[in-house]
Amino acid sequence: MVSAEAARQSMRELDVLLRLGSLHTPMAVRVAATLRLVDHINAGHDSPAKLAKVTGTNANALLRIVRHLVAVGLLRETGPDQLEPTTTGRLLADDHPAQQRAWFDLTNAVARADLAFVRLLDAVRTGRPTYESIYGQPFYDDLAANPELAKSFDTLMACDQDLAYDAPAAAYDWSNAKHVLDVGGGIGGFLAAIAKIAPHVRGTLLELPLVSERGAEHFRTAGLDDRMNTVAADFFEPLPVKADVIVLSFVLLNWSDDEARRILRRCADALEPGGRIVVLERDDLAEDASNEKFTILDMRMLVFLGGRLRTRDEWSTFACSAGLTVESAEKVASPSVPFDLSLLVLAPNGEKA
């Protein structure tokens, strides 16, 4: 006979499994973010009926979503038909300093891409990303074809990564650098951070044409266009610019080993003698790849792009396969962001520090 305590423990374990396996709450959170429910509540639309009216949704259906958000602790009832966000729920306000709402908004690039996880089994069976099977074309091609989607992606990346750049920029010694080439660096957030602490450095941002234009505008707005310029190019082709330091910030995790190796080799070919490649990535120095932040992003890279994160041991082997040596690798503490950062310095094989 099963004891009462054993039965209770079994039920607790079942509850954990049901929470882990449920798609209900993740989708309800995304609906709340997309409809901006917390913003509307804060603006006085604090009942299910008022929320349905202001969002143009079905009142009965939205009521059921709201009940679930109360049940899981994102909203609470303060009176009959009166709602307010909890501390956690306030994270879904558009003006919250953590800037998380947009990450769950289904009209934005990342939350929309997350829907490709419904075909995770296909990715596991084939090793290929599933984004294309959902949306008809690869992730970056989809962005190129949808300017508003691309804009949402750039905004998310700029918000997330700009917070992350100051600490790694300060972690590297730029005193001997003259020209820094930022390959695939979005609108140039890392270069801008480098420019702040290394006023002697000239910089070039290499990106695809549309992103390169936005980068040029970013530098003009920041008053850096006298030292920072942009070049439109494809980093899978020979790079048209040489530099003594080439940076790759949040780039290589987007690509498979074969593709990332090609990018590294192009960068190595564009180094001036004695030059170095500086790689900034997320979570890629985990010793055992068992922490949840590592595994979540690693699965996203698989499903979205066919990319991957790499552990410390994997980096050593991978760099060597591209004709490079990991000269140094360190964690970088950045109190402004909720994820780990790592800074790797790569040197061509055979070169001494």
From TrEMBL:
One Pfam family this sequence matches: Methyltransf_2
Sorted UniProt keywords = Antibiotic biosynthesis, Methyltransferase, S-adenosyl-L-methionine, Transferase
Question: Could you tell me the superkingdom of the organism this chain comes from?
Answer: Bacteria
For the keyword Transferase, the answer is yes
Q: Which PANTHER family match?
A: O-METHYLTRANSFERASE CICE, PUTATIVE (AFU_ORTHOLOGUE AFUA_4G14580)-RELATED
State the family named in the UniProt similarity comment for this chain: Belongs to the class I-like SAM-binding methyltransferase superfamily. Cation-independent O-methyltransferase family.
Instruction: Write down what this protein is called.
Output: Arminomycin 4-O-methyltransferase/SAM-dependent hydroxylase
Which species?
Prauserella marina
